[in-house]
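Q: Convert this sequence to structure tokens.
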Amino acid sequence: MDVVLCHSEVNDRHGTGILIQRLFPRHRDHIVCVRAVSHWDGEQDFGARQLVIPFGIGRPEIYRWVLAQLDGLDIRNLYCIPYSGAEIIAALALADAYEVPLCLYIMDDQNIDAPSIPDNLMTEAIERATLRLAISSDMREAYESKYGRRFWIAPPTIPIDHRPPTQAGSGTAHGVIVGNIWGQEWLDALKAATTDSGLSIDWYANAPSGGFWLDGASLEELDAAGVTLHEPLPEHELAARLEDYEIAVLPTVPRSGLHDNVAVASLSLPSRVPFLIGASDLPIIVLGDPRTCVGRFVTHFGLGVASDYSPDALGQALAITRDPHWRARQRGSLANLRELLVTDIASWVKTALAHGEPLDARFEALQVHPPRFLASFCDEVPALGPWLHGFDPVHASLRRLASWGYSPDFIVDAGASTGVWSCVASRVFPAARFVLVEPLLSRYDEQSIAFNLEAIEHHAVCECALGDHEYDASVRIGANVFGTSLLTSEDPADPEVLIPVRTLDALSGELGLGGRGILKLDIQGAELEALQGARRLLADAIDAVVVEVSLDPPLASIPSYDEVHWLLQELGFTLFDDAGSYREPGTGMLIQKDFLYMRSDHRLAGLRRAA
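A:
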């Protein structure tokens, strides 16, 4: 069974209910629905089983209640569509107990523009979620900016079996409102705008009698304002009637006033917008604040016009939609959006949850510009875990290369120590041939080396140092094998060994390295010499260099960051990405940095310049 956790009844009375039904077309076979409240007198025909969280109980009680109710079920996936804390707490209880994937889908905001869900609870849900979805680009940007975790756009979509769109009437001054009006202030503003506007409007609400949250006396005044309220119709019947109208009117929160129910309008894309896109070619006039999600969406994609709540503004908006050139552009936008939004959203979400992210980025095309919030990159690379957390930055850097389509034929790991760096890199590029260069390989723990090499399918080991020419070097080896360098000396009492120094140009020729690859250098101050001895390889076959540099070298013989940077630039490479750092354990002072350099003429370097 899958468990859907939401706020109120899943039905056709509100957009969230419609979308949830679309996500789970076989809900009677395998869905248990857990909700927090009953706003619609229990009206719900969704799920093989439905449960209502007892009102007013705290977190421990919710844990006990939901685990007792679902005891013995084989739960596979959790889907939480939150509007209050209760459904989030229930989802966390099941996620902890059953250890199954959790999809967190933010359709309506109750944390950014409304305080209903506390930050600490939302943080917990976001961190626990396997997949995080947002109904619009505005919603996605808001939550990414606040919480620093990746969300994916999952908009209201159009069913694959939708009827062909109808053609709008011409010059009839007859409009239609589809769906609910979510604030009394919105309704009052609508009446003021339509009175004496010359426009007649039919309103098909999802909720009976317009909605229990609206004032009855105010609803009775609609006729005088040119608005006729109809009882709800099934979507297929309503779609067939749209050819009777010239425009669709979509009321939202007014630009000024009390901002009644602003959280509903601010970040959410109403499900009625894709419905109108799929069912007709009606221009949409958004009445109210153009900064709302629907106002930005409709104007950005050229579907309609945003207008203030006034007869004059409404008349001007109607005149724009009657312009033949504007209508031609609008119909083109509708066609493009239909191609994107007509999809099997149920399969898309199910597959995305199974993989922890969508397998395609089709809905990223619904990004609205300019962004309302400062855009930030959210790196969702899984942590490597115990003992390997220090390699998380370079692992993320290599993953980014792979996400941009880069795949090396070989990787040279100079200063390989136990092979742990190559082991981490092989998780990203398992098909690459790894060459591990380490002069003191026999001095490291054999079990660690064997463990790391076993994870690398294709590898060769070269027990030598790297330099700008070939010779034998005498090196003293102290207790810290990792810090041994050709350029520094340990205690004179430390044992002295003779090690071969090779050039990478010679070594690569002997190994027969073919194709293109990555060079990693972590060789305790010998980076300049190694680069000088690899000029041919760098020119012919290296796309990227990962190099460790000292910001404040303790000895004059160890090159500074500037020296390494300028040599790599001379060799045709440009600084491309951060790959890690080392800080002094006691003070946190930054001591060393790992940087990834890319060939200046590589396509990825060009992409970065374009960004």
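Residues 404 and 607 are 10 Å apart (CA to CA).
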